[in-house]
Amino acid sequence: MDWILQATALTQSEFLILIGLAILAGIVRGFSGFALSAMVMATAVIILPPIELLPMLWWLEMSASILMLKNGWDGADKTMTYALVIGATIGWPIGLALTIAISVAASKTIALAVIGLLAITLLAKIRMPFLATKPGLYGSGVLSGMVSGVAGVGGMVVAVYVLAADAPAKVMRASLVLYLFLSAGISMVVLTVFGVMDMSGIARGLFFAIPTMFGVFLGQQLFTERLAPYYRPFCLILLIGLAMLGLIRTQFA
């Protein structure tokens, strides 16, 4: 156990808490197709700053994407997804540069505020007609990349776009799975170039990928025709609560 704690640069209590968070976030990811990074960022940000969570989240997202890729590839709107990935390629370095340039406290606040605001927007079913245009499509991709670089929650931005297109739950879920898988290759390059993908981040990612995959497997079993209409409200309400709690704790830390 000691060598694991040394490799991850965590205390025993922090390590156990992150295992629990990884399983819970994996369940939500397996059920909804997104929100893994958002959930971890909203809670684990109290333990680690966003800039240190980003490399770990890459491994968690990749492990989840591998498990869900078949359904994502078969059911996704590929034309839309490819355009979002192109936009994210542009936005990722911008967001990551902003994260490195500002203080840890400020990046925590931004990360949690982004999660809360995006979740509220989705829950309120606010539709923005501009997003249904081609500039809106690529612009959403760029914004997704920027938000991923700052807060690791680019999937939420993509979810806003899909909501504006009024896609069925299965298409939204599959498109998000494919988007997160394809964008992972781009984000790895950016994280490496910026020096964010360090050894502790890799170690944390590899160790916590196992409980994450277990959670994803459980979550996939919950995505049935009967429960599909309820998956998005459940995830968004949970994210809003976690983001607000994290903001309060950050401000009074």
UniProtKB/TrEMBL annotation:
It is a multi-pass membrane protein. InterPro entries: TM_pro_TauE-like, TSUP. The keyword Transport applies. It comes from the Bacteria. Keywords: Cell membrane, Membrane, Transmembrane, Transmembrane helix, Transport. The chain crosses the membrane at residues 15-32, 39-60, 80-102, 109-130, 142-164, 176-196, 202-223, 230-248. It holds the Pfam family TauE. One of its GO terms (cellular component) is plasma membrane. The keyword Transmembrane helix applies. It is found in: Cell membrane. Its main location: membrane. PANTHER family: MEMBRANE TRANSPORTER PROTEIN, TRANSMEMBRANE PROTEIN YFCA. This is Probable membrane transporter protein.
